[in-house]
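Fold this sequence, please.
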Amino acid sequence: MGIVGEKSFAQDIRDRIKIFLETTLKLELSLEKTKLTHMNDDRAKFLGAEIHVPSPRESKQVVRTTASGKKIPTRVNHVRVYLEAPIQKIMDKLRTHGFIDGSSKPQAISK
């Protein structure tokens, strides 16, 4: 879940979700496994993928042209969120279980 605001606000939301899960759905939220991450400083892991906001140096650079025709290189605002899946690890696991062959082509599965 992404929350824009102070860390204390995110902690309050997490605590409310924990109470809702326990009282309404009879589920347990592990606070040891529930990580609050500042997306500009760190990466969050979810289902094996990394979620992060790129730093300005990782942002795409574009060339803008002024009204006078002068070209100015600038960076695109880096408010995008990146989801990076470990593709090679996924491919290796699929290969190990026989879902793809050595050439990484899918294999038909029959009963």
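Residues 7-23 form the longest helix (17 residues). The two ends are 39 Å apart (CA to CA).
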